[in-house]
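cron nightly-structures :: item 1 of 1
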Amino acid sequence: MADQPSHTCVWFEIPCTDLDASKSFYEKTLGITMNRNDDGPNPMVAFSSMENEGVSGHLYPGKPAACGTGNSIHLGVKDRLEDAMARVPNAGGKVVSDIIPIPVGRFVYCEDPDGNSIGLFGR
């Protein structure tokens, strides 16, 4: 049998209607730098390189699910969760829940500018 991935999730894709606006939202919200690549069959903006350990993904031009009907991708924040939450509306998104404590940390549900559901996860 072939080797099995070490993570249940190995890659995610987030559809967006404006690739550059979505790149700006995620960079501002997460405090990261993302890289656009137009070399493949479709343009994409990667959260990290394939060489980085862990699970990652990318943004791509596509049709987001209607608000409240799609998957929720949970993204880790490097600083305080409250600081990341404050950046969401300034970057064009919406915070849609209070902070939810769980045994391994805390998270909050948000929507990106296209209405994609995301969770911001921190401790």
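cron nightly-structures :: done
The radius of gyration is 15 Å.
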